[in-house]
Amino acid sequence: GAVVSQHPSRVICKSGTSVKIECRSLDFQATTMFWYRQFPKQSLMLMATSNEGSKATYEQGVEKDKFLINHASLTLSTLTVTSAHPEDSSFYICSARGGDRGFEQYFGPGTRLTVT
Amino acid sequence: RKEVEQDPGPFNVPEGATVAFNCTYSNSASQSFFWYRQDCRKEPKLLMSVYSSGNEDGRFTAQLNRASQYISLLIRDSKLSDSATYLCVVSSYGQNFVFGPGTRLSVLP
To answer: Between 20 and 30 A from B2 (CA), which of A46, A68, B95, B101?
Structure first.
């Protein structure tokens, strides 16, 4: 399988601050990256899809001005949670797809965000 | 109706038991099907793809029934390490993955 990393793995921030999460594909070029959110005991919910060099496509109900996504290179996508609130506390997981890896998505280890 | 549905469980089974999970999907245009495994507080990991002819990987067998729009996962000779949440994933060609809510399995000693 392919390797996808996320950083940080865990972050605690105060309400009103912004947090940036990085997702990197380490051994393949990810033409598409996906950002998911998972609340406790619930399944993964797709937030947005980003293709390298273009604007992200957000799922219905996800605020694009609050969750800023940048996919500037084939190996890096970032998700910035702006003006975070306690209800944004969740497990954020990225996945990557592309290159010679076909249609399969490879998941990063996730970032646990706690907003106090 | 949700696009992908699973019985959330939990399924509590003794070691060595055989357990089966089903997953139903609503989009008849779906073409790709997967089972992922997710451990607590970890990312999902691909367990196996599901092919039309059915496929087996060791103790795990996956089957697809397009007519009834469901896929299944059978685990034989359950191990303690099989305890996890099993996610059914469905996708149409070129489209994004849609995850089911997951079925929680606990294998008991």
So the answer is: A68
Token output for B38: 């997710």
pLDDT of residue A1: 62
Q: CA-to-CA distance for B51 and A28, rounded, in angstroms? A: 25
Q: Smallest Cβ distance to A46: which of B32, B94, B96?
A: B96
> Amino acid identity of B41?
R
Residue A94, class by beta-carbon neighbours within 10 Å (0-12 exposed, 13-18 middle, 19+ buried)?
A: buried
- Secondary structure class of A80 (helix, strand, coil): strand
Task: Return all residues near A24 (Cβ < 8 A) that are at least 6 apart.
Answer: A4, A5, A6, A7, A75, A76, A108
Q: Cβ contact (<8 Å) for A34 and B97? A: yes
Q: Does A107 touch chain B (CB under 8 A)?
A: yes
Measured between beta carbons, which residues in chain A are less than 8 angstroms from residue B91? Answer: 103
Q: Write the pLDDT tens digit of every residue in A20-65.
A: 999 999 988 888 999 999 998 788 899 999 988 888 999 999 999 9
Distance CA B82, CA B70 (A): 22
- Which of B96, B98, B103 should one mutate to test binding to chain A, selecting the residue with the greatest count of A CBs within 10 A? B96
